[in-house]
Amino acid sequence: MKGKTLLIVESPAKSNTISKYLGPDYIVASSMGHIRDLSPNILSIDVKNNFKPYYEVLKDKTHIIKELKKLSKKCENIMLAPDPDREGEAIAFHLNELLKTKNHQVYRILFNEITKKSIEEAVKNPMDINLDKFNSQQMRRILDRLAGYKISPVLRKKIGGPLSAGRVQSVALKLIVEREKEIQIFVPEEYWSIKAELEGSAKPSFVAKLEKHKTKKVKIDNQEQADAIANELKGHDYLLQTIKKKLKSRSPSAPFITSSLQQEAFRKYKFSVKRTMKLAQELYEGIPIHGGEPTGLITYMRTDSFRIAKEAQDMARDYIVKTFGAEYYPEKPNFFGTKKKIQDAHEAIRPTLPFHEPKELRGMLSDPQYKLYQLIWNRFFGSQMSEATVEETTFEINNGDYIFMIKGEIMKFDGFSRVVKLESTLDRLPDLNEGELLKELKLSPEQHFTKPPPRYTEASLVRVLEEKGIGRPSTYAKIIDTLGKRDYITREDRKFVPTILGIRVVEYLEDNFQDLMNYNFTADLEKQLDQVSEGKLDWTTGIKEYYEKLEADLVKVQETDKVDLLIGKKCPECNNELIKKYSHRTYGWFIGCSNYPECKYTEKVTGGEEQKKDEILDKECPKCGLQLIKRYSPKTRQYFIGCSGYPNCKHIEMEQADLGECPECGKPLTKRFSRKTRRFFVGCSGFPECTFIEGKSKK
User: Fold this and answer.
1) What is the mean pLDDT of residues 572-585?
2) Which overall architecture, per CATH, does domain 5-129 show?
3) 300 classed as catalytic
4) What percent of the chain has pLDDT over 70?
């Protein structure tokens, strides 16, 4: 066995794919993600010794480390191949710490796509672990630990319940709460518009909007003004005074990066951020195609870079010219500037080489996988194609001193819109001549009211977090998940609504940890993380600044009063305020009187914002084909997924947290209840074929 190389990746799915590409001289194994971390029970950071962290092997990974050490003894070399980002670098660092011996050569290898060519090139070009990138991850981990372990206990003491705070999590919640307060104080204002449906010498008819009176923009505040203008218009003809035509170019969008993929998948298919990342991970790690070996179909999906490899550009050019014609490829390849240097060693998200057309893979992918792959494919090839050209036409129509306008457009050259639909709100206009008198078919004064800013969806929250430089797109799914689990937010029509608890938590943190809740301060820390990864800043610098502010706030907060979660209702027995409280006996929230213990009135948390709303999922019932719905059971205090056809169809699935993969067979782990022990346990979903149970030692 001497001379062999142990190659360690993060997941079994990836190891299965890679093992097919390498010969018998390689043993491919999986670390199942992180293998060491700070202890979950204590701070694990020596704040007086330059923030020295104390790591320990994760309890559920001891058997994995044991197996990896056993395999390493059979090999001469070790290659560490976790994902090519900061988290992956941290996994490689900790694996190296646990596995390195004087008998081994340990290398780090990087690849951006899981294809035979990419893997073979990576093993030919091993490198050292990037300590700057690891220190950036270590800095982030320590910052998050300090925020969580120092601020969360304050929330539990001052507000009550199993509350948590986070460096990015709390700032994201602040955005949602601030938007809700904007909506609450918003006062709608009335305004009117006037539209005229007109017809000229050629069809179709069209609807023009009143824009100006002489040279001033028209502003109509009420019906009285609208009626007066409508009466004036009746006394004059509609004259097509001016036709303006202008050629305009429409440039293609950049290929996807993590955040733009999350936003577009939500916009087009209503995929949650979490689901998008899960599907992208599956496409990246490999899908068996054409009955053969698993093949990675997209490049690495956690990236902030728009860069495209020269080889990919060349192949895209050949495909575009062959499929659509030479005019569909620009004279010079399109270039999309990267706003930041973050992870610029990566490429944008694109199909791997050689490219597999979506229609080839239709029967080999699940419907959600296919939709996401097609989205990535179309966006990549569209980004490499020529601009589209449209002729924008504007009609200016005079009626006395009033001017109506309408814009329309005609496609002159479709360019990249051959693969990415060119979305436009402009109308198709008839072929008319200047000086024509137009016939009025209908005049429509319409009442409107200004609208408050919309609540955040997953897509719009991701967009604003990215714009403000807060957090990383790869962490957004976990942040959104945590906000829901803490009962800080609910959802209405896929939009985030903060609960009373969420609002009070933000208000408390704003009052007592003002610096740490500041958007710019949080964004500056992200910039420092980038500087550390580039070797331009010592990793302890940002931690010191953060910790000094945190310690000062923690001293002040000891003197603050406990926060009552007022629900805006009076006690029916004593007329004092009712408040929301947390019971450590039942591990749940309830409504009680603020005059306790003199008044012991209580009631269950039901109705209003506390009523968990059903969420229609983009999944079909496996029994009857109707849509599945996510519901909350007050009896079990858990979410479950049921058929919308209930009671005719009684299909039920329990809502499962992402518990990772089985270390023995790679299938998802699942949480189940044991009638024998009367306890929940985590085991393999492949039971009875696989009998793995977490925490159960093997004899």
Assistant:
1) 89
2) 3-Layer(aba) Sandwich (3.40)
3) yes
4) 91
pTM confidence score: 0.81
Judge if 151-186+456-557 and 190-251+388-449 fold alike in CATH terms.
no
CATH architecture, range 151-186+456-557: Orthogonal Bundle (1.10)
CA distances 519 to 173, 465, 514, 523, 557, Å, are: 12, 10, 10, 6, 21
Domain locations in the chain? 5-129, 151-186+456-557, 190-251+388-449, 258-383, 565-610, 615-684
Torsion of CA 214, 219, 222, 225, to 10 degrees: -10
**Which fold, 190-251+388-449?**
Topoisomerase I; domain 3 (2.70.20)
pLDDT in tens, 297-341: 999 999 989 999 999 999 999 999 999 999 999 999 999 876 554
pLDDT in tens, 247-259: 999 999 999 999 9
Kindly report the CATH class assigned to 258-383: mainly alpha
Q: Are 477 and 273 in contact (CB under 8 A)?
A: yes
- Of the residues 300, 328, 488, 508, only one is catalytic, namely 300
Q: What is the pLDDT of residue 545?
A: 92
- CA-nearest of 602, 627, 631 to 614 is 631
- The three-state secondary structure class of 455 is coil
Quick one: pLDDT at residue 345?
57
Rounded CA-CA distance 94/100 in Å is 10
The answer to whether 312 and 353 have CB atoms below 8 angstroms apart is yes
> Is the pLDDT at 36 greater than 90, yes or no?
yes
* 151 C-beta neighbours (distance < 10 Å), count: 24
CA 159/CA 564 separation, integer angstroms = 7
Rounded Cα distance between 629 and 631, Å, is 6
Q: Which of 63-67, 193-197, 466-470, 687-691 has the lowest mean pLDDT?
A: 687-691
Sign for the CA dihedral angle at 320, 321, 327, 333 comes to positive
